[in-house]
């Protein structure tokens, strides 16, 4: 069964209202066993496509994950990419910028980690933090050493910089796909309680998570502005309902599969000289 992912895309120029976007949809699986079967199928196909990506060496893929705390970014990345060759996949997580990173423009630290041709790059949070958490907490700008005092237009300027970067990447062979894991506030509450109640999950919870929860409305507003300003045909945003972890993983894996299959990749065809060379080597090996 192929999941129709069109319902989750943010169309370029669309006005985004996250309150009207569901955090839970009808499951694409009938049971836990069926979910495992579907995910296993997706992972196997992803593995084959990743090998093609690496062998053809013409494109790169950048997957960006953004979400509120406890939305399941780590789980999605771990389960969806479980069958991909680690040599062909690079995962980067971004926390608060270091003093060195703050000496550069806001795109610098992630630009160092962009995937080369033949590889899949995954950003667990990204340069989008600079128009999300920084927009909710504008006092962070004071420590960024900006050349001039930021005005009301700083977010528009940063959207323009991000759009320019992603268009540049696309034109040079990198396909950019962005996921916002859309979690409800009530589901986040349940997951926070689970992290507190289970000792093996205590490490996942911090007091800062609870503090940020108080800014839920501000974050939803920041995400809505960001999604509508930076979703484009060449670098789309997908709003993935995240209250059901298993469903979210199936949706994400289908989107990644669609992205890779649309590249219509083939294994390189050896030249006539290379074929003669291989035949000569084969003749020696079969003696």
Explain briefly what this protein structure is.
This protein has helices at 32-56, 73-80, 108-111, 133-136, 154-171, 185-197, 207-213, 216-230, 245-261, 272-285, and strands at 9-10, 60-67, 89-93, 120-124, 174-182, 237-241. It is an alpha/beta fold.
**Strand coverage percent:** 5-15%
Estimate percent helicity: 40-55%
Q: What do the pLDDT scores average to?
A: 94
The run of helices and strands is EHEHEHEHHEHHHEHH
Continuous helix count = 10
Sheet with the most strands?
A: 6 strands, mixed
Give the terminus-to-terminus CA distance: 48 Å
Low-confidence stretches: none
What Rg is obtained from the alpha carbons, in whole angstroms? Answer: 21 Å
